[in-house]
Amino acid sequence: MPEQQSAASQADTTMPSAAIAGCDLFLDGGIVITIDADRRVIADGAIAIRADRIVAVGSRRDLAGLKEGASRIVDTTGKVIIPGLTDGHTHLFQTLGRGLGDGLSLVPWLRDFMFPYARSMTRDVAVAGVRLGALQAALSGTTMVVDNHYAPTDTETTLAVADAIDSVGIRGAVARGIFGETNPGADLMGVDPELFQWTAEQELAITAECIAELNGGAGRVSVWPAPENIVYVTPDLIAASAQMAADSGVHWHMHCSEAAAEVEFFETLHAVRPVAWLESEGLLSDRTTLAHAIWLDADEVDLMGSRAATAVHNPVSNQYLASGVLKLRGLQGAGANVALGSDGIAVAGQDMFEAMKAGTLMHRVADLDSTATTVEQFLELAALGGAAMTGLDGGAVVADGLADIVVLNVDTVRHAPWNRPVASIVHSGRSDDVEMVVVGGEIIVEEGASTRIDQEEVIAKAQEATAELFGQANLERLTRDWQTADET
What we know:
Layout: E1 25-28, E2 31-33, E3 41-42, E4 45-50, E5 53-59, H1 64-68, E6 72-75, E7 79-83, E8 85-90, H2 106-119, H3 123-139, E9 142-149, H4 155-168, E10 171-178, H5 184-189, H6 200-214, E11 221-227, H7 235-248, E12 252-256, H8 260-270, H9 274-280, E13 288-292, H10 298-306, E14 310-313, H11 315-320, H12 328-334, E15 337-340, H13 352-367, H14 375-390, E16 405-409, H15 421-428, E17 434-439, E18 442-446, E19 449-450, H16 455-473
Parallel strand pairs: 1-6, 2-7, 8-9, 9-10, 10-11, 12-13, 13-14, 14-15
Antiparallel strand pairs: 1-4, 2-3, 4-5, 7-16, 16-17, 17-18, 18-19
């Protein structure tokens, strides 16, 4: 069992007067990493939850009165409690392609693997992959996902994808992939023409229908507009998507400047850099969430900061595809929000602990500077950065905040000896450490297993769906190990 750590301001218990009435769930004991304004780490801590909110956070001693009236008490002695993590950019439907496409750079990866994969996707196959990916996210301590879903994207499938995420119990924004009609940018990027199956008017109508159906409802999943890529979606459709987001009170999502070639393609078409164009069209704002945003020049970095736009950092994916290194220090210094993403299982692992460690280390080697990042910085990106990106009142364990919480078992050989909580979590932590996940006050993972769905059934259905998909997309050639480049 890890030794308890001392905590600054441990006696500063946060407990509104409403907490006196008792609570539904009481987490009793453990080290609470709050990420609150004072960045308190409470050694012998406790958390009281009523409905979907945290009503009190403090020492076990100071919250003892709330424990007596709690409907359920969970002993978290020897555990570590952190805020729920947000995966700011993923593709859950890609889960069935686990392990494929390795060794390809971005454009060949899209042309030879992902576009044929997406083109062959059916509704049932997509839902099986999404449910498996959402389950893995939940079991890994992710309480919110931004799922960029682009195959298929009809109304029924989009709503079914949202339902699959919701069934696991996590929060989600289905960033519905918008393509519109084929265009010169699609030709440059080698996008499969079959993915351009709707007109711009149809794309907007379907997205609006999904937003009207889901957003503001009782579920935990909403829909965002997501023009897929700044190169191969027409400028008018990107602008209309951003306007729809503003009108609907949601954020919008887009791949932007992931690879150097994408920036070159965009400049060829429009004679301006991507983020500079967004600013010139009035599309850059705090609702703008750009996946990757790697190849920005200094002016674009400043523009992102001036508009408080979000760059979603996907460090594992960026290394897997050798896409480049996000200008993290510049973006944060300019005032941009930076969130953390996995980019899905096809290029990463749906594990935010992996993303935190990879991000912490990649900037150090890129800058040849071991002080370029801190472990605290990357835990904040995964928690606070994700909450800011999605507009959630979360990312910290604080009174009146959303009760989205992860309990970690650190009583293992990987964490021994227990010396520094955040460093141990980021450098030695894994999704296997996740013992309990609470979303909106509901325990959705307990003793490392889902409380909502049959995990074995989800895995079995995903395996069946994979066999069907491989037959349609001719992906068997990508399953061989030790293949040469000319065999892919």
